[in-house]
Design brief:
There is one protein chain. This protein is an alpha/beta fold and 279 residues long. The chain has eight helices and eight strands, in the order E-H-E-H-E-H-E-H-E-H-E-H-H-E-H-E. An eight-stranded parallel barrel has the order 1-2-3-4-5-6-7-8, surrounded by four helices. Helix 3 packs parallel to helix 4 and helix 4 packs across helix 5. The chain is globular, with a radius of gyration of 17 Å.
């Protein structure tokens, strides 16, 4: 096997950010990709005007790109926030206001995976209260995802870069996923296995893949150190992807890395042009 034997999508919230949002799908297509993913693009609001949602759908359609992953509203991301759903008060309310908006948009573009970032611990808030709120909101999100035929993703981040985020190990995320599935009975909550974050946490990535490939709904990659393209760091990414495939994972591999000083279009030289379009 090798890099050419996997299905890739480009994260347009970290790559091609030198361009306005609506120009990024076409830029990804020009680089040879037909699948993309996004963090919630409207960081200021969970409920953007319908015209803005329609404009993004048109940009995706016009470029011939399929949206395969979308974050629910996650606060200021990029920025200090790491999600909203476990943050009591206004942020939790914003997440709830976003659930049906995000699910309906996903349905409108045929996106089958919605990622719900857990949110940071808040000074002065009881962690148990935050976790109870998180489960309530994740159950709502799982039901909304199921309504549009999508899975709900829960992601592990890394402690060095997200010190207030409580899900900084694969088992911590899996525990939440199991609770959501038990509460809904839907079985559509799945693990977002981000190899960069796992490696930053010092986890045994090969062992995580072996243990949790069956519960994995989406994969993201970046090299480490540096969060750059494959080959810019020291991770055996090709081997990890092959391990995933051998373990039965057939889903998307999101390219969630930084292009560095180069234009984004020049950061894909590790991947043969013929392997970029969705298969």
């Amino acid at each position: 096997m090798g890099y050419s034997d996997h299905r890739y999508d480009v994260n347009l919230s970290i790559l091609f950010t030198e361009l306005p949002l609506l120009e990024r799908p076409a830029a990804a297509a020009a680089a040879g990709f037909t699948a993309v993913e996004l963090w919630w693009p409207w960081i200021e609001t969970p409920t953007p005007p319908q015209a803005e949602l329609d404009a993004l759908k048109k940009a995706l359609d016009d470029a011939g790109t399929q949206l395969v992953g979308l974050n629910f509203y996650a606060g200021q991301l990029p920025g200090p926030d790491r999600g909203a759903l476990s943050v009591p008060g206004d942020e939790s309310d914003r997440f709830r206001a976003n659930i049906e908006v995000a699910a309906d948009f996903a349905a409108s573009v045929g996106c089958k995976a919605l990622n719900a970032l857990y949110g940071n611990r808040v000074e002065g808030a009881d962690p148990q209260v935050q976790d109870t709120l998180a489960l309530e909101n994740l159950v709502l999100a799982a039901r909304a995802a199921d309504r549009v035929g999508a899975i709900l993703l829960v992601e592990t981040l890394n402690k060095p870069e997200s010190p207030l985020y409580p899900l900084v190990s694969a088992p911590a995320a899996i525990e939440v996923i199991d609770k959501v599935n038990a509460a809904t009975g839907l079985g559509n909550a799945r693990f977002l296995l981000d190899i960069y974050h796992l490696s930053m946490n010092g986890e045994d990535v090969a062992r995580v893949i072996e243990e949790y490939a069956g519960q994995t709904g989406h994969v993201q990659i970046a090299d480490n150190p540096g969060r750059g393209a494959p080959g810019t760091g020291s991770l055996p990414l090709e081997q990890f992807l092959d391990d995933l495939k051998k373990a039965g994972y057939e889903g998307w591999v999101g390219l969630e890395y930084k292009a560095g000083d180069r234009p984004s279009a020049e950061s894909f030289d590790w991947l043969p042009a013929g392997a970029r379009a969705a298969r």
